[in-house]
Design goal:
This protein has eleven helices and eleven strands. It is α/β, with parallel strands linked by helices. It has one domain (39-283): Glycerol-3-phosphate (1)-acyltransferase. The chain has a seven-stranded mixed beta sheet, sandwiched between helices. A two-stranded antiparallel ribbon has the order 1-2. Strands 9-10 form a two-stranded antiparallel ribbon. The termini are far apart.
């Protein structure tokens, strides 16, 4: 019997021709195209940008200098100083680059974020990736993406307010080796304003060890704003300066690179960032108005 025909009891077997029904199209599953292999969702990023936009424009009043030095195509490793009990610099950089250059930015962060229930998932949906050399390499070399890393690690946001804008050691320079392997430039970004957005006045080492956190801070926000100070930032004025890209005249994908060269390059980048921060601070008239 052909499709679209049926037998009726009244017709004693007579064929009744029915119109052919169109085949149902499969339901669209946004996860098939919206969430990439890293867990990033462009839908969530759009929502995040929409919600974060007022904070970026009206609260932090972000200003960029040298944004054109960040490439509009190809891989690049963005490197910046890091500060604030709950760092405010990462979302500022990611939002600014994505809004101005229309390029996604993947932010590398400690595994502790990935392990947090709900927070870990939302962090991944917003563009966060566990900080591991192979993750960075694949994003930079194979996928030609922009990747943001903070070489100070937790030592940066863990600084006391009395130590503000004093850059910590850039580890062992692993970010330089990743850039060399991937064949991409390092683009340093000096950030002014994050230190004052959530300054740490005191740290409790015993409590940090007890809860397994890198630091347990008491911030000025907590003292002045009460419970709201746990997540509420001060309206410090943000200024970001993008420095000239650093290119390495070495072939990518080598089995090993000179350890001394890596350390020297990392220290040179740290010194350049530190010098630019001092210059920006000398020019600043006010923490709140720039």
């Amino acid at each position: 019997m052909a499709t679209g025909e049926r037998i009726t009891a009244e017709g004693r077997g007579a064929l009744v021709h029915l119109p052919r029904q169109p085949e149902a199209e499969p339901l669209h599953d946004p996860r098939q195209s919206d969430v990439d292999e890293w867990g990033r969702s462009e839908h969530i990023r759009q929502l995040t940008r929409r919600l974060y936009g007022p904070l970026y424009r009206s609260w932090f009043r972000v200003e960029w200098e040298g944004l054109e030095k960040i490439p509009t195509e190809g891989g690049a490793l963005l490197v910046a100083n890091h500060a604030g009990a709950i760092p405010s610099d990462a979302p500022v950089i990611m939002h600014g680059v994505e809004e101005e250059l229309q390029r996604p930015v993947y932010g590398l962060a400690d595994h502790i974020f990935k392990a947090m229930p709900i927070v870990g998932t939302m962090w991944a949906r917003a563009g966060g990736v566990a900080a591991h050399p192979e993750n960075a390499y694949r994003l930079l070399r194979e996928q030609q993406q922009l990747v943001l890393v903070f070489p100070e690690g937790t030592k940066g946001p863990g600084k006391l307010y009395s130590e503000r804008y004093q850059l910590r050691r850039f580890g062992r320079g692993g970010f330089v080796e990743i850039a060399m392997r991937a064949g991409v430039p390092v683009i340093p970004i000096a950030v002014m304003g994050a230190e004052e957005s959530m300054p740490i006045i005191y740290k409790n080492a015993t409590l940090a060890k007890l809860v397994g956190a890198p630091y347990a801070p008491l911030t000025a926000n907590m003292l002045l704003l009460g419970p709201l100070g746990l997540v509420g930032y001060f309206p410090s004025k943000f200024k970001l300066r993008v420095l000239d890209p650093v290119h390495f005249d070495v072939p990518p994908d080598q089995e090993r690179y000179s350890r001394s060269r890596i350390m020297d390059e990392a220290e040179d980048i740290r010194v350049r960032l530190q010098e630019n921060l001092y210059e920006m601070l000398r020019q600043r008239r006010s923490v709140w108005f720039g």
